[in-house]
Design brief:
Strand content: 5-15%
Radius of gyration: 25 Å
Distance between the termini: 69 Å
Shape: elongated
Strand order of the largest sheet: 1-3-2
Number of domains: 2
Length: 204
């Protein structure tokens, strides 16, 4: 009876395969944490996507790792990647920066999950490290200044004329205290003498 139990345990549990799973997931989770928590996460506005990036990465990793042992056609594999790559929530469109990070976390999960014996551990770590490095350099140094926008109600309706754009921008700079460099007129209400405008400014 005891021998039967041991054989049954060996059938359902493979220590070598489980060790590989834990090792690869540890590498994946380590670099994921650096990308999402250290590089991406800056302000409170970015907090909502942290959960999304972690869960997308973890789920994609386990799906790819477990399904790579199951024979499948190339079309199905590409279709699975396409579903994750173009997926977007119906409630709101994902901004381009967040969409890029979503692609990054999905990409590293697939790299770490689908590599086999022909790819060395050094190559896996180097690839992850290079992705982290280039993401950090681009997001923090090469494109450090970000353009933000804000919608406001503006009552000096005489300044919304195209020929007075410079005066309008200077007035918005003084009143908002922001380095406004552009403005867009959304809607004009002549009955109340107000206009809905969107201001654009750079944030370092």
């Amino acid at each position: 009876m005891e021998i039967f139990g041991i054989e049954l345990f060996k059938e359902f549990f493979n220590g070598e395969d489980f060790g590989k799973l834990i090792f690869k997931f540890s590498i994946n989770f380590f670099f994921l944490s650096i990308i999402v928590r250290t590089i991406y996460y800056r302000t409170k506005d970015d907090k909502d996507y942290v959960f999304t990036f972690f869960m997308f990465n973890i789920l994609t990793f386990f799906i790819c790792y477990l399904l790579r042992k199951v024979p499948m056609e190339m079309g199905f594999a590409l279709g699975l990647f396409a579903v994750f790559g173009i997926l977007r929530y119906r409630t709101e469109a994902i901004p381009i920066r967040q969409m890029t990070y979503l692609f990054i976390v999905i990409g590293i999960s697939m790299i770490n999950a689908l590599t086999n014996k022909s790819v060395s551990i050094f190559e896996i770590i180097f690839t992850n490290g290079f992705i982290v490095f280039i993401t950090f350099m681009i997001d923090r140094y090469w494109f450090q200044t970000r353009e933000l926008s804000k919608s406001i109600l503006y009552e000096k309706i005489e300044l919304i004329k195209p020929e007075k754009e410079n005066e309008l921008i200077e007035d918005l700079k003084k009143r908002t205290g922001l380095p406004v460099h552009g403005v867009k007129i959304n809607k004009i209400d002549f009955l109340r003498d107000v206009a809905s405008v969107t201001i654009f400014y750079y944030y370092d």
